[in-house]
Amino acid sequence: MPRIKLDMPDDFVFTAELPVRITDINYGGHLGNDAVLALVHETRVRWLMEHQWTEFNVEGVGIIMTDAAVVYKSEAFYGESLRVQLSVRDLTTLGCDLYYRVRERESGRDVAHVKTGIAFFDYAQRKLAPVPEPFRKLFG
Questions:
Q1: pLDDT for the residue 140
Q2: Whole-number pLDDT of residue 2
């Protein structure tokens, strides 16, 4: 089976620093795969908050995740601090891709590269919605 490869961007619009918590550790003694998605979720919510948005309200519509890809680069351990950088890419009429570079803060060691696809969604009508114009102007 071919390996997933993510072409990581060089420019990022947001950075969050997050600790590796004991609840993020799996039975192998390192950061669990499920915790990586939780860390990028936390980063996404903080980025939205920076613009006074939420996952349910980006200029009147919400967002939903359409896909996710994670490429693990190295282990991370309890007590380490991670720097999670977010970039907006591949804007379409209905959504975009968010790229995340997860690094250990002190050493700069890559821990994971992640991409999540998001689509804009009208939760009241339960259907996809166009990318809001203010979002497009900021990140298009």
A1: 85
A2: 86
Which residues, at least 6 apart from 64, have a Cβ–Cβ distance to it below 8 Å? 118, 119, 121
- Does the structure show a pLDDT above 90 at 122? yes
Residue 112 and residue 97: Cα distance in Å, rounded?
16
What phi, psi does 28 have (nearest 5°)? -80, -5
Element holding 110 (H helix, E strand) = strand 110-122
Q: Does domain 14-139 have CATH number 3.10.129.10?
A: yes
pTM of this prediction? 0.96
What is the 8-class DSSP label of residue 47? H
Distance (Å, whole) CA 120 – CA 66: 10
